[in-house]
Specification:
- By secondary structure, the protein is mainly α.
- It is about 60% helix and about 0% strand.
- Strands 1-2 form a two-stranded antiparallel ribbon.
- A hairpin with an 8-residue loop joins strand 1 and strand 2.
- Helix 1 crosses helix 3, helix 2 packs antiparallel against helix 3 and helix 3 runs antiparallel to helix 9.
- The longest helix is centred in the middle third of the chain and has 21 residues.
- The protein starts with a helix and ends with a strand.
């Protein structure tokens, strides 16, 4: 089992490396690519500090861009949210020289958090919006980071609650139905939520609402969320003027008489 988890960690690192290997790489749609390299260059220039927050941003962008380019990633817990967990754990472990055995232990813990979310609520954007994807990933990452910082399981679970509450109600509105815009940049900002939540938990700041109850709330929010905001590309950023123009440029057209933003292939 640990051999498999070490392999998972290796794939996560390779996905980051792939996303940073070519600054000119673009996805098939043309909507994404190169931003991980831009962020890394900004750090390398000395304009901002190379700390866990900023390095995790780079790694989340890199992994998500690898996914958009059809590269190999680890769905953690989904492809659309694959950047947050590896970015946070790997950035922290690199800057603090944490050995791989400890990181693997953290991955097992994050898997437990993910299973709890899946059992009580959902990991599906189509079912509960992006709170179930980037929200779940941020919760898992926060828990794993708290563990790497020396926290107890209770502190890790508390960090997960703090993170998930911060992203409760996040909609899933992929432009043209592709997991690129706004998904990739949500992965990057999701790392900040995860890191801040872990820091708060380790400082002794507790979530008033327990993790298990946050999951119940997440499920309830998902049930009441309109279908247009659950991965259908019929609401949010997907139906802005720019979002609809991009969809049309990719060979999609709006259904006759449909003002919701639903597109079909021409």
């Amino acid at each position: 089992m640990r051999t498999h988890m070490h392999e998972t960690l290796r794939v996560m690192r390779e996905a980051i490396a792939a996303g940073l290997s070519d600054k000119d790489a673009r996805s098939h749609s043309g909507m994404s690519g190169g931003n991980a390299c831009r962020m890394k260059s900004f750090i390398d220039s000395g304009s901002i500090e190379d700390n866990v927050y900023n390095r995790a941003t780079v790694y989340a962008l890199a992994t998500s861009e690898t996914n958009a380019n059809m590269g190999k990633i680890v769905a953690a817990p989904t492809a659309g949210a694959s950047g947050i967990l590896p970015a946070v754990l790997i950035a922290f472990s690199e800057l603090n020289r944490v050995d791989d055995e400890r990181v693997v232990d953290a991955l097992y813990l994050t898997g437990d958090i993910g299973m709890k979310i899946a059992k009580t609520a959902s990991l599906s954007g189509a079912e509960c919006g992006c709170q179930a994807e980037c929200g779940s990933a941020a919760a898992m990452a926060a828990a794993g980071l708290a563990f790497l910082m020396g926290g107890t399981y209770e502190q890790s679970e508390n960090a997960a609650a703090l993170a998930l509450k911060s992203l409760l109600g996040l909609v899933c509105d992929p432009v043209a139905g592709l997991v690129e815009v706004p998904c990739i940049k949500r992965n990057a900002t999701g790392t900040s939520v995860a890191i801040t939540s872990a820091n708060m938990s380790m400082a002794g700041i507790e979530s008033v609402i327990p993790f298990d109850e946050v999951l119940v709330a997440m499920k309830q929010v998902g049930r009441t969320m309109p279908e247009q905001l659950r991965e259908t590309a019929q609401g949010g950023c997907a139906v802005t003027a720019t979002g609809m123009r991009i969809a049309r440029s990719l060979g999609l057209k709006q259904r006759r008489g449909d003002e919701s933003g639903t597109f079909v292939r021409e």
